[in-house]
């Protein structure tokens, strides 16, 4: 199921990289690449279903451990 909503799709393990087209051609950030690769691996282990009604705490813990919730976007890309 695709909601055309970045956060919902990411929650369901479907990272739509087309949304990042505006950033193509910019230098790569190895740290962000590593976190995204780890995110994909983690989400593959936790198939999330809307029927469950909740996200497993273990999923949050693993995402937190790789720094997923602490990503910061440099000002040159519109972040703070």
Structural summary, described in words:
The chain is built from 3 helices and no strands. By secondary structure, the chain is mainly α. The radius of gyration is 14 Å and the shape is globular. The model has no long low-confidence stretch (mean pLDDT 77).
Topology, please?
Layout: H1 6-11, H2 30-45, H3 57-65
- Continuous helix count: 3
Helix percent band: 25-40%
Low-confidence stretches: none
Order of helices and strands, N to C?
HHH
Structural classification: mainly alpha
Termini Cα gap:
33 Å
Task: Outline the biggest β-sheet.
Answer: none
Q: What fraction of the residues are assigned to beta strands by DSSP?
A: under 5%
Counting copies of identical and different chains, the oligomeric state is single chain
Number of strands: 0
The value of Rg in angstroms is 14 Å
Q: Could you report the average pLDDT, rounded to the nearest whole number?
A: 77
Shape: globular
């Amino acid at each position: 199921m695709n909601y055309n909503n970045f956060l919902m799709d990411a929650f369901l393990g479907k990272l739509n990289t087309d949304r990042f087209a505006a950033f193509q051609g910019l230098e790569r950030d190895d740290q962000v690449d590593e976190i995204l690769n780890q995110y994909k691996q983690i989400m593959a282990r936790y198939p999330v279903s809307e029927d469950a009604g909740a996200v497993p705490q273990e999923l949050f813990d693993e995402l937190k451990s790789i720094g997923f919730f602490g990503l910061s976007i440099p000002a040159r890309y519109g972040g703070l």
